[in-house]
Amino acid sequence: AKHAGGNLARFYTHAMNDAVRERVNIEAGLRQAVARGELALHFQPKMRLGDSSLMGCEALLRWRDAEGRQIPPDRFIPVAESCGLIVPIGQWVADAALDQMLAWRSAGLKVPRVAINVSAIQLAQPGFAPLLLDALARRGLPNSLLELEVTESVFLHPEGAALEALRMLRSRGVRLALDDFGTGYSSLAYLGVQAFDTLKIDRSFVATADAPGQARSAAILRAMVAMATAFGMDVVAEGIERDAQRDALWRLGCESGQGYLFGAPMPAADFEARCLSARPP
Ligand code: C2E
Ligand code: CA
Ligand code: CA
Ligand code: CA
């Protein structure tokens, strides 16, 4: 028994060391990532379900590390948030997205609304809102072409600087979307939804939207759509992969969506070729 316990202890120590080592490696790699040009944005279309026209896109961060490995954002964003690197990385994301919009405009294309993901930590940085407005103004881009996707975690500090920054940005026309709706601190989010233009329904609800006998998930989806509509918000369903899901959501009153059915996140050049058209004269 003693022997087995010893092995178990060693096993846990190894497992813990692996987790710690991975964290430390990610942090060390991330410190260099911006300077080494290892970050890129991919773009995923958001569609109107009624006529399958483009309503905008979401910019999603991609990191290919020094050894050429793609590290998924779900692994490095939490590390970046806990060590503060999310601030310079988020700054890079905003600049890269705005530069891309400018490039599309210069190429004579109709610039779509672009959404970027913003962490509550970034929003709470002093000067976040004025710096972002300045970045838009310097490029001559209308504020309403930019959307920020924020998760329910922003409501954890209701009196905080993050919500103050959101209020300021919205008053100047920047669009706000509440991301992953329904997954987190929902009771707080329900109280705060009216601060947002768009509700993004998490894909966990979308996954079962077309399953037979899913009266419960249909009822939840219908309630979310009804609430959003009552507040005059747009609703975007995330993670639509099948025709039947799109059809079920449309029947429940959801007017737009995003997912592999319409296109996975793709490099800017592919997005441009597949989704963008020339600006009307
Ligand atoms: P998210 O904001 O909820 O982004 C949607 C995620 O769902 C993306 O994963 C996207 O590739 C994936 N997705 C889109 N359509 C489908 C579908 O039809 N089926 C399935 N199964 N998945 C789909 P990704 O790109 O791996 O990003 C993961 C998360 O990382 C994002 O979730 C977001 O929370 C975070 N993230 C990504 N880029 C940034 C960024 O620039 N800043 C911050 N703070 N977070 C980011
Ligand atoms: Ca998002
Ligand atoms: Ca989401
Ligand atoms: Ca998410």
From TrEMBL:
Residues 23-279 form the EAL domain. Keywords: Membrane, Transmembrane, Transmembrane helix. GO terms for molecular function: catalytic activity. This is EAL domain-containing protein. The chain holds residues 339 to 619 of 629 of the full protein.
